[in-house]
Write a structure and sequence with these properties.
With 225 residues, the protein is mainly alpha-helical. The protein contains 7 helices and 5 strands; from the N terminus they run αααβαβαβαββα. The N and C termini lie far apart (93 Å). Bound molecules: iron/sulfur cluster (SF4).
Length: 225
């Protein structure tokens, strides 16, 4: 076991006799549980736009994020722990992204890579893009840049590993009593509709209809007069 790995899982409150260092590790359940997950984050394999090229580059030999245990990009959400949203998030793609997120088993994490995925980027408020994927799925780490460099993505992934290090098996949501609800998949019609906002849409539509009816009644009254 390398020194780095031993440091990661050892609980330093207990002394290990020098002759046993390297053979024995004393740790807590939380530490070893987190260490296992942080060291085997498998990203789901998909990309949306230019940021995806930087992500692919980060997986290739020069930067090689396999060094962090992110060995294989999985082509199936069933085998993935990590969604790297890399690229411009168009309204057309949001239903697919949310569906894939729902299909990933817990524990799962999301990284928003780049300005587009984090907040719309240069296309913010364009007719065909959303202003950040976090309007639809929860994001754990945001990486700024247009595009972020491979180094920035690696920094974001290390940040995610640090976040995992702080989790406790007692409090993680996937062991809670209540089942984790699926996120309703948005519907793409004339515009993107989020089912979580249907109530608000109904209210706005009813108010608008009442305003139109009132305006029509006024104009009909003025014509008769
Ligand atoms: S943030 Fe920049 S590089 Fe990344 S997808 Fe958007 S426009 Fe392309």
């Amino acid at each position: 076991m390398s020194d780095m790995r031993r440091d990661n899982i050892n609980n330093t409150r207990y002394d290990i006799p020098p002759e046993l260092e390297g053979q024995v590790a004393i740790t807590t359940l939380d530490k070893i549980y987190n260490w296992g997950r942080r060291s085997s984050l498998w990203p789901i394999m998909f990309g949306l736009a230019c940021c995806a090229i930087e992500m692919i580059c980060t997986a290739a030999s020069r930067y090689d994020f396999a060094r962090f245990g992110m060995e294989i990009m999985r082509p199936s959400p069933r085998q993935s722990d990590l969604m790297i949203v890399a690229g411009t998030v168009t309204k057309k793609m949001v239903p697919q992204i949310v569906r894939l997120y729902n299909q990933m088993p817990e524990p799962k994490y999301v990284v928003a890579m780049g300005a587009c995925a984090s907040g719309g980027g240069p296309f913010k408020e364009g007719y065909n893009v959303v202003s950040g994927i976090d309007n639809y799925i929860p994001v754990d780490v945001y990486i700024p840049g247009c595009p972020p460099t491979p180094q920035a993505l690696i920094h974001g992934l290390i940040t995610l590993q640090r976040l995992i290090d702080t989790q406790s098996i007692k409090r993680v949501r996937w062991y809670g009593k209540d089942p984790i609800p699926e996120i309703p998949v948005p519907v793409l019609g004339p515009d993107l509709m989020d089912p979580r906002q249907y109530e608000l849409m109904r209210e706005v539509a009813a108010r608008r209809k009442a305003e139109l009816e009132a305006a029509e009644a006024v104009s009909a009254g003025s014509v008769e007069a």
